[in-house]
Specification:
The protein has 403 residues and is of the alpha/beta class. It has 14 helices and 16 strands. The structure holds 1,4-dihydronicotinamide adenine dinucleotide and 2-oxoglutaric acid (AKG). Pathway: Amino-acid biosynthesis; L-serine biosynthesis; L-serine from 3-phospho-D-glycerate: step 1/3.
Length: 403
């Protein structure tokens, strides 16, 4: 029985993919093999030794102690692109309501309650306070052209905006998906200086934390509208509030509510709603669950943020086993591993080794079961981070959607 701990509410349709006869799923469970999480903060959490994988049903992994997981041989997965459309749709909405304050207008109109026949006239008189510019023909600068940024860029082009983007690490797939009308900004500062609207779509890392600060705000046009549907920590809130008060920023829409921001006229705070659609929640849960099943039952790794992609498509030899070995990415690991297997007279049927930064991962199919003694010898190799044996005779790998 595999034990899966859920730290957030995960779409029930996704959880239903776990076969009930071999998986136990609960929010509180002793010694889970894997954890399913959305935005729950995990940095201060003690991770039991039993945990082999964490799947983030979503894109951002800044709530997960990824480096610590890598050291402990815990594979961290996310679900690239699975909620991108949901975020994109809300960003397009925010582009419009950052210009045309329909949220304010709607609550003002509610205040006319009880005025009866006077309402049409009062409405006509009052509407001028909610005038705002059209987005057509304006320049939108997008920082980060990944799954979400690229979709926002293309739809903004369709709405008649001039779109410029900045992403020094853009993937080939994202670049191919972009409309030819999207132009590359020469630098972040050039994008900030030219844009009437700015939308942020980068992950929160040590490099990007607080990068929208007073220095960057100074470069921007007066009256700029800034949307942040990526992470609250990317923006220096005190600097942003000052810029809104000074009239430098006409509107700031953030998906990350914060005490100081809530009080500031000109800031619209949303309660982290970007991915809150049934479609996105299901897509993320399906992808995360399928990835976990494929990892736990077959050792395969797809869409990890800390381990290399590594998979064997075929079944584990029926009478044999698959060894899943994580090790430091240093010389002579494969030599040491294979000599232990040779010493135990274990014939290798197939093998793959991939590395990423400081870690490497091996999948080795052998034609006989592997004794506890051999597993202990493999674990004792200096540089080995984790060893797992999956006996053959189970179902073949389920196909998993790739990035
Ligand atoms: N509000 C919400 O509910 C959601 C928020 N997010 C946030 O949005 C972020 C982006 O999501 P996706 O587009 O799906 O991720 P992604 O990984 O597809 O795209 C991120 C892009 O940012 C680029 N990038 C990284 N560092 C950069 C830098 N310093 N300057 C410019 N570009 C940089 C990368 O090259 C990549 O193309 C996530 O990391 C997450 O924090 C994601 C989904 C839902
Ligand atoms: O699960 C959620 O609602 C948040 C999604 C998110 O922020 C992400 O995917 O990075």
């Amino acid at each position: 029985m595999y034990k899966i701990q859920t730290l957030n509410k995960i779409s029930p349709d996704g959880l239903a993919l776990f076969p009930r006869d071999s998986y136990e799923i609960a929010s509180e469970i002793l010694n889970p093999e894997a954890i399913l999480v959305r935005s729950a903060e995990m940095h201060e959490l003690e991770l039991p030794k039993s945990v082999k994988a964490i799947a983030r049903a979503g894109a951002g992994v800044n709530n997960i102690p990824v480096a610590k997981c890598t050291e402990q041989g815990i594979v961290v997965f996310n679900t690239p692109g699975a909620n991108a459309n949901a975020v994109k749709e809300l960003v397009i909405g925010a582009l419009i309501f950052s210009s045309r304050p329909v949220h304010k207008a709607a609550s003002w109109a509610k205040g006319l309650a009880g005025k009866g026949d006077e309402i049409p006239e009062l409405a006509e008189k009052g509407k001028s306070q909610f005038v705002g510019p059209e987005i057509k023909g304006k320049t939108l600068g997008i920082i980060g052209l990944g799954a979400i940024g690229a979709m926002v860029a293309n739809d903004a082009v369709a709405l008649g905006m001039n779109v410029i983007g900045f992403d020094p690490f853009i993937s080939v797939d994202a670049a191919w998906s972009l409309s030819r009308a999207v132009h590359k900004a020469e630098s972040l500062d050039a994008l900030l200086a030219k844009s009437d609207y700015i939308s942020i779509h980068v992950p929160q890392t040590n490099d990007t934390k607080g990068f929208i600060n007073a220095d960057k705000l100074r470069i921007m046009k007066k009256g700029v509208r800034i949307l942040n549907f990526a992470r609250g920590g990317l923006v220096n809130n005190a600097d942003m509030i000052q810029a809104v008060k000074d009239g430098k920023v006409a509107c700031h829409v953030t998906d990350f509510a914060d005490e100081a921001m809530l009080d500031c006229e000109g800031v619209v705070c949303l309660p982290h709603l970007g991915a809150s659609t049934p479609e996105a929640e299901e897509n993320c849960a399906y992808m995360a669950v399928n990835q976990l099943i494929d990892f736990l039952e077959n050792g395969n790794i797809v869409n990890s943020v800390n381990f290399p992609k590594c998979k064997i498509d075929g079944c584990i030899p029926e009478k044999g086993a698959r060894l899943c070995i994580a090790n430091k990415n240093v010389p002579n690991m494969i030599g040491q591993i294979t000599s232990i297997l040779a010493g135990a007279k274990l014939n290798i049927a197939s093998m793959t080794n991939q590395n990423r930064a400081d870690v490497a991962y091996n999948l080795i199919d052998v034609e006989d079961r592997v004794s506890e003694n051999v597993l202990a010898n493999l674990r004792d190799i200096d540089g080995v981070i984790g060893v797992r044996m999956i006996p053959g005779g189970n179902a073949c790998p389920v196909p998993v959607e790739e990035e």
